[in-house]
Design a protein that fits this description.
The chain is mainly alpha-helical. It has helices spanning 2-6, 11-20, 30-55, 59-67, 72-102, 114-125, 128-160. The protein has a single domain (2-160), classed as MetI-like fold (Orthogonal Bundle), CATH 1.10.3720. One of its GO terms (biological process) is transmembrane transport. Belongs to the binding-protein-dependent transport system permease family. HisMQ subfamily.
Length: 164
């Protein structure tokens, strides 16, 4: 249920948190609303990735664990979770990159972030191309090293355990 309800957490939900809840006496700062939004959105996508990793564990591995006498807890601890986590690393890596790019949704709460700052500068100085180029460069500076690191981690996990 969590996955289906929060995987589309977006602007309307942020509006509700920031503008709707104060009407009933619950007030959060813009930053807290943004963090709550990213937690719900990121949590649902990460849970989906982990769910896929757990589903990817071979049935023969599970049956082998049961055949050697592992309890359900031991099976989960020693067989299912370690392999499921390793299978989930590519999804986690993609979700980290996605969540960094998704922070532009904070614009609706007037939280300063890269896209909002670039749009403000464009509005003040009318240098659209220069500021959009700087926006792309800023995202590249953040995302390219992170992407390289996460790709390295994926390869390390894939070849370091039971992978291809």
């Amino acid at each position: 249920m969590y996955l289906t309800k929060f995987d589309s957490f977006s602007k309307p939900q942020l509006f509700f948190l920031f503008y709707g809840l104060p009407q009933v006496g619950i007030k959060f700062s813009a930053e807290v609303c943004g963090i709550i939004g990213i937690i719900f959105l990121g949590g649902s996508y990460m849970a989906e990735g982990f769910s896929g990793g757990l589903a990817g564990v071979s049935k023969t591995q599970i049956e082998s664990g049961l055949a050697i006498g592992l309890s359900r807890f031991q099976l989960a601890r020693y067989v299912i979770f370690p392999q499921g986590l390793m299978l989930s690393v590519p999804a986690f890596a993609a979700n980290v990159i996605f969540l960094i790019k998704e922070t532009s949704i904070f614009t609706v709460l007037a939280i300063p972030e890269l896209t909002n700052t670039a749009l403000d500068l464009i509005g003040m100085y009318y240098n659209t191309n220069e500021y959009l180029f700087m926006l792309v460069v800023a995202y590249a500076i953040i995302l390219i090293p992170l992407s390289i690191l996460l790709t390295w981690l994926e390869k390390k996990v894939r070849y370091g355990t039971f992978g291809n």
